[in-house]
C-alpha cells in the first residue's frame, strides 16, 4: 500500500501555512521527511506533526529550516507570527495585547509570573497541573511559555514590574535545585533598567487582589488592559473603569510591598534555604 501524506490546509492559520511551506520546500528538494529529520536532528514523527500543524513549532527549528533550504529568514519570520497560535484560543486576545505591550505589571499570589519563569520551573509547574498529559504535550506547553520570553530581550525590551506574594519564593516548585535556579533568576531581575520585582510580605494580610493573579498590559497610545486569572479561568478587562479599579488595587499593593533591595535580600534568604 502506497503511503499517502496527510492533506494540508495552508489557509487555516499561520501555523498551517508554516507546515505547508516546510513540506513544499522539502518535496521540491527531493527530500524525504526522514532525510530532513536527519539533517535537522529532529525525530521524523515530530517533523511530520509540525508539517500538519498538529504540534507547535519549537524554538530554534526555524533557523535550522532556513539554513537547510537557503530561505533567507523565511521560516524565522513565519515563526514570529505562528508562535502566538500555539496557545488556547481563549488566551489569544490576551497574547495579542502582550505582544504589543510596552509595560507589563504583574501580581502573583502563589507562583512566579510566566514571563519570569525558568524553563525547569515552568516544566515542573505544567507537569503538576496536567498529570494526564504526555511528555511531548508538556514539552510543547513549556516551549510555548518560553517563546513569550523573547519580549524581555532585543533592542527594545519589554518593561516588567512584578509584585509577588512572599509565598511565591518559599513554595518549592520542582524541588530545591529547580527552585534555587528560579530564585537566582528573580534575584537578577529585581532591580534593572527594564524590570522591578517586589515581595509583598506575609504580615500585610488580606487585600483586594487576594485569591488570584493580575496582569496589566500597557500598549502604545496610553491604553491599558487587565487580565485576571484563577484556577483554569481567566478574564480580560478592556473597559476603562474596570482597568482603573484594578490598577488602583495594584498600586496599593506596590505601596505595601518591600522595596527592591529588601525584596532581593528576602529572595537570597529563600535561595540559601534551597541550597542548604
TrEMBL record:
Pfam families, alphabetized: DUF5753, HTH_31
Species assigned in the record: Streptomyces lonegramiae
Record's protein name: Helix-turn-helix transcriptional regulator
Alphabetical list of SMART domains matching this protein: HTH_XRE
Domain HTH cro/C1-type: 22-75
Amino acid at each position: 500500500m502506497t503511503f499517502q501524506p496527510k492533506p494540508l490546509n495552508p489557509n487555516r492559520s499561520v501555523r498551517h501555512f508554516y507546515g505547508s511551506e516546510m513540506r513544499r520546500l522539502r518535496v521540491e528538494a527531493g527530500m524525504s521527511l526522514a532525510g530532513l529529520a536527519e539533517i535537522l536532528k529532529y525525530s521524523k514523527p515530530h517533523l511530520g506533526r509540525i508539517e500538519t500543524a498538529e504540534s507547535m513549532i519549537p524554538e530554534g527549528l526555524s533557523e535550522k529550516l532556513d539554513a537547510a533550504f537557503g530561505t533567507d529568514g523565511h521560516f524565522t519570520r513565519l515563526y514570529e507570527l505562528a508562535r502566538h497560535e500555539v496557545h488556547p484560543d481563549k488566551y489569544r486576545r490576551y497574547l495579542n495585547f502582550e505582544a504589543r505591550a510596552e509595560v507589563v505589571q504583574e501580581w502573583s499570589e502563589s507562583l512566579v509570573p510566566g514571563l519570569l519563569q525558568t524553563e525547569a520551573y515552568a516544566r515542573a509547574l505544567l507537569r503538576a497541573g496536567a498529570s494526564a498529559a504526555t511528555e511531548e504535550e508538556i514539552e510543547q506547553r513549556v516551549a510555548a511559555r518560553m517563546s513569550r520570553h523573547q519580549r524581555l530581550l532585543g533592542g527594545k525590551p519589554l518593561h516588567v514590574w512584578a509584585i509577588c506574594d512572599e509565598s511565591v519564593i518559599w513554595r518549592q516548585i520542582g524541588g530545591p535545585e529547580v527552585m534555587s535556579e528560579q530564585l537566582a533568576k528573580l534575584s537578577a531581575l529585581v532591580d534593572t533598567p527594564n524590570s522591578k520585582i517586589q515581595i509583598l510580605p506575609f504580615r500585610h494580610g488580606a487585600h483586594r487582589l487576594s485569591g488570584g493573579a493580575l496582569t496589566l498590559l500597557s500598549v502604545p497610545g496610553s491604553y491599558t488592559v487587565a487580565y485576571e486569572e484563577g484556577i483554569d479561568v481567566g478574564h480580560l478587562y478592556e473597559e476603562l473603569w474596570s482597568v482603573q479599579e484594578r490598577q488602583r488595587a495594584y498600586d496599593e499593593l506596590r505601596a505595601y510591598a518591600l522595596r527592591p533591595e529588601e525584596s532581593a535580600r528576602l529572595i537570597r534568604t529563600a535561595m540559601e534555604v534551597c541550597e542548604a
